Structures are given as C-alpha cells and as structure tokens.
C-alpha cells in the first residue's frame, strides 16, 4: 500500500514557513536571479551592500559556531592566520577572470572530496583490518584480544583524529577562500554594471577623480586576455624599473628584509603574549589549588639530610622526583676525589691485593656540614694488604676508631711495611697516632719495617694561611672503599706495571651507619672470589 506524506505537516515545511513569514510568499524560498537589481544608482548600491554584508555575517557566524569550539585560541595562531591572509591578498591576481574563479572553486570540491575519502577510508581500514580481527581473536583468547583491541583502538583513534583535524582545517581555509573569490566576483560585476549603466553626470564625476580612461580599465577588468596584476608583481616591477644598480639592490634588500623582519617580530610578540598568558593562568591555578610544605628525607638513615618542598601537589611530586634522581646518582660516590702520585711509583710499585681506603669526616653522619653551615673536614687513610679473614664491616670500623673516631692533627705518621707498601696518616699527637696504628696492625698481614713521625710547625705559610695548619679535630669513619687487584694475562685490560697487568674491583661502603649494609656479605664474597670471567682471564 503506498505511503501518504502530508507536506504541510513536515518539520522542514514548518521551519521554512516560520523563517519566511515576512516574505511576499510565505513557505517558499525565493532566490534572486543572477544579475543587477532594479532601481536607481542609490537603490542598486544599497541592495548590493546589504546582500554582501548579509551573506558575510551568515557565513562568518556559521564558521565561528562550527569551528571555534574545537580550535584553541593562541596569539601565535592568530598572527599566523593574519600573515597567511595578508600574503594571499598580497599575491592575489586582481585581474583574475570569472572563468578562472569558477575553476578554482570547482577544484576545491575535488580537494575536499579527496580528503573526505581519505578520512573515511582510514577509519574503514582500521575497522576492517584491525578492530574486527582483534575482536575475533578476543572470542578465542580474551586477554590477547583485549590487548590487541587496546593497541589497535588507540592507534586508530590517533590516526582518525589527525585525518579529521586536517579535513576540518583544510575545508575551513578553502571555504574562506571560495567565499572571498565569489564575493570578489560579485563585487566586480557590480562595479562593471555601474560603470556601463551610470548616467553622464556620475561618469563625469568619476572621470574627474580617477581619470578619463577609468571606464576602459573597468570594462577590461577581469577579462580573459588581461595582464595579471597583484601587489607583489607591482612592487617587483617598481624595483626592477630602477635604473641605478646600487639603488635597485638597496631597495630590493630593504623590501625583502622588512617583510621577513615584520613577520618574525610578529611571531616573537605573539609568542611572548602566549607565554605571559600561560604564566598568568598557572599563577591563578596555583593560587586556587591548595599548597603545602613537605619535609623529605632521601635517606632514612640520615635524619640530618632533609629537603623542604613547597607548592601544589603536582609541583611537590616533580621536585621529589628530581631530588630522588639526584640522590640515587651520587649516592655512595666520592665525587671530587682526586688521588695522584708520581708515575714512576705507580708503574714500579706492585699493586697490593686487598686495599681498604677509609674516608673520615669531622661530623659523625651526613649531611657533611657543621651546624654553622661550613663543610666538614675530610681526610683519609689507605690501609694496604688487609688480612682477608679480617674483612668484616664491624672489625674494620673498630680498627679505625669506631663510633668515636680519633683525633686528627699536625703529626704525620709514615708507616712502611716489609712488602714495600706505605701508609701515611695524620694524628693530633704521637700517642693518638700510635694508639690508632696498633688497632690497624690487627687487620693487616705485612710487618712494619719503619715508622717515621714528623710534626708540622705553625711557621711560614702555615702561620700566614690558617687553612694550611692542621688544628686538632675529631674525625669519624664515614666511608670505606675496598679494592681488590688480581693479576691477569691480557695486557689490553687493567693496570700495567713492571710486574704484570692487574685488574681492579672496587666497592664503596658506608661506615657512618650503626649496622653494615644488607649486601655486605655479597660484596665480601664477590671481592674475595678469584674471578675467571673473560674480563680477567683473557
């Protein structure tokens, strides 16, 4: 049975009747036929101007309502659009014919159709070849299918969003260009109609202002055989007509330099405005969002080392991540330590198998600063040829003073062992140095050959410069470096001496703590094990 459609009851008919209520024929759309309106000069002018502004406002309103909600405004993008518009007008051929305008508008449909097909094809391709197979896999293996759907769906969304954004922006720009071309064609038709139909009085007024040949120029405006004209062509022609080569080069350079500098300066100003507005927004958000003060301890065993963080929650998280990264990077690393000795001693003296270097500080634990903010005193003792059976964390700490440390000062001890090793250190007095030496001798294997004690007097440079004189200071064991060197066969790896090539393994262990580190047993086992890896045996 055929369907019956009651036209007056359709929504479109009701809307059309409401919009054309004041029209001579309500309910019907009346499209003015192409051509000049009827009436005198003033009436024609008002009709054309009214039609131009009416269509312009309608088009701009539609464009703003559709595109502005999805486009974020920035001064940089506004300046870029302005530069693009001015460049287009500057290079626009004002003698373009109506046929060429129609061809450009027709080409726009092809470009938009191509972009639309590419966007839809992109979505269909991901749907058919990506999402559908992933959904089919999910029926067999649900975890794998869900994983594939997540991967393909995310990629498909990004690709489709990019294609859709390109389609919208290109369509908007082409629509704006077509609008300009169509309005320009109508405006030119209006001017040519006025010029040909104007009465003699109006023509005489126009000729008095614009010259007697203006009528012929208007009649030839936009014809097929007319010469192209644009602001850019006119400026180039003006510069090329200069006879003096130096003057021509000057104006050509001024012309190009001023254009480029103006565009660049505009981008700089626009970027500065965007940055300033962004900072203002961030300050507003910071003022709105609640701020707090947090004390952070990177090392739980070091209560004296803390950082005060202030800001919003996100700002505090960023600061905390930076502090922890820096702390992990320098943790247990003796930065800035430079240890040197004559090259001849380095080459001739045999490496000693198991060496312990003790670093002392004038404060018992980090941060290595005094209460007044000054940096804690730092000194060290290198103990050669440690007895492997005495390589215990507590044993070594007790041998170098324990939790109380010892008094460092102006008396230099130089202990030479029978294996040619040397151990220099400083103490506040001969008695303090001998007491420390007795404890150290309990953990080393060689015997003492000689002990020399020299006192540094406060004379000369030490009297003139206070920092050179070693005042009596209590120092505490802070860090311990354990170094084990093994002789290897490969001469390209390790340290070369007159007695062979040696490979070094080194570990840095804290001594300021009350208990040894958790991995000390592993370190001890590794450093006492004779390696047979390619790094050593090659």
Tell me about this structure.
The protein has 3 domains: 19-70 and 96-225, no CATH class; 292-330; 346-537, no CATH class. 53% of the residues lie in helices and 14% in strands. It has helices at 11-19, 41-67, 75-91, 98-140, 142-197, 200-210, 214-220, 231-240, 245-288, 313-330, 343-348, 393-399, 430-441, 461-464, 520-528, 534-537, and strands at 292-296, 307-311, 354-361, 378-383, 406-408, 411-417, 422-427, 448-455, 473-488, 495-497, 500-510. Strands 3, 4, 5, 9, 10 and 11 form a 6-stranded antiparallel β-sheet that branches. The radius of gyration is 44 Å and the shape is elongated. The termini are far apart.
Summarize the structure.
With 538 residues, the chain is α+β, with helices and mostly antiparallel strands.
Count of individual helical segments: 16
Q: Provide the domain count.
A: 3
Helix content: 40-55%
Mean pLDDT: 75
* Structural classification: alpha+beta
Q: What is the rounded distance between the termini? A: 97 Å
Strand content: 5-15%
């Amino acid at each position: 049975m055929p369907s019956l459609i009651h036209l007056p009851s359709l929504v479109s008919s009701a809307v059309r009747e409401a919009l054309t209520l004041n029209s001579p024929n309500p309910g019907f759309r009346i499209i003015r036929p192409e051509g000049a309106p009827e009436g005198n000069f003033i009436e024609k002018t008002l009709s054309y101007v009214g039609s131009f502004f009416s269509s312009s406002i309608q088009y701009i309103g539609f464009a703003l309502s559709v595109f502005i909600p999805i486009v974020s405004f920035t001064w940089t993008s506004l300046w870029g659009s302005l530069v693009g518009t001015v460049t287009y007008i500057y290079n626009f051929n004002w003698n373009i014919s109506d046929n060429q305008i129609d061809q450009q508008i027709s080409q726009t449909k092809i470009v938009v159709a191509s972009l639309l097909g590419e966007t839809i094809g992109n979505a269909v391709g991901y749907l058919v070849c990506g999402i559908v197979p992933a959904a089919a896999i999910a029926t067999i293996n649900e975890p794998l299918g869900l994983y594939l759907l997540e991967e393909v769906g995310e990629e498909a969304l990004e690709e489709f969003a990019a294609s859709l954004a390109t389609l919208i922006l290109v369509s908007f720009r082409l629509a704006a260009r077509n609008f300009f071309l169509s309005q320009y064609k109508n405006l030119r038709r209006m001017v040519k109609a006025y010029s040909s139909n104007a009465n003699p009085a109006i023509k005489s007024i126009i000729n008095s202002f614009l010259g007697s040949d203006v009528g012929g120029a208007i009649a030839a405006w936009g014809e097929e055989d007319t010469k192209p004209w644009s602001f850019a062509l006119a400026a180039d022609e003006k510069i090329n007509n200069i006879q003096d080569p130096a003057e021509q080069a000057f104006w050509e350079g001024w012309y190009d330099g001023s254009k480029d500098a103006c565009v660049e300066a505009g981008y700089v100003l626009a970027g500065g405005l965007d940055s300033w507005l962004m900072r203002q927004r961030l300050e507003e958000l910071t003022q709105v969002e609640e701020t707090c003060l947090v004390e952070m301890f990177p090392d739980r065993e070091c209560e004296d080392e803390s950082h005060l963080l202030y800001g919003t929650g996100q700002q505090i998280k960023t600061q905390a991540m930076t502090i922890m990264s820096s702390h992990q990077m320098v943790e247990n690393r003796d930065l800035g330590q430079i240890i040197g000795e004559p090259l001849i001693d380095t080459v001739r003296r045999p490496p000693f198998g198991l060496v312990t270097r003790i670093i002392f500080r004038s404060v018992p634990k980090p941060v290595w600063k005094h209460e007044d903010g000054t940096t804690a005193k730092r000194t060290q003792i290198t103990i050669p040829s440690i007895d492997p059976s005495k390589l215990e964390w507590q044993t070594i700490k007790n041998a170098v003073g324990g939790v109380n440390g010892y008094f460092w000062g102006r008396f230099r001890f130089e202990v030479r062992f029978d294996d040619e090793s040397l151990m220099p250190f400083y103490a506040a007095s001969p008695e303090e140095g001998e007491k420390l030496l007795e404890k150290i001798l309990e953990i080393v294997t060689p015997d003492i050959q000689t002990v020399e004690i020299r006192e540094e007097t406060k004379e000369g440079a030490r009297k003139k410069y206070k920092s050179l004189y070693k005042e009596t200071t209590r120092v505490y064991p802070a860090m311990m470096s354990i170094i084990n060197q093994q002789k290897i066969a490969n001469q390209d790896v390790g340290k070369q001496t007159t007695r062979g090539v040696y490979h070094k393994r080194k570990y840095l262990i804290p001594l300021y703590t009350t208990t040894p580190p958790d991995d000390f047993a592993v370190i001890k086992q590794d450093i006492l094990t004779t390696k047979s890896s390619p790094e050593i045996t090659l």
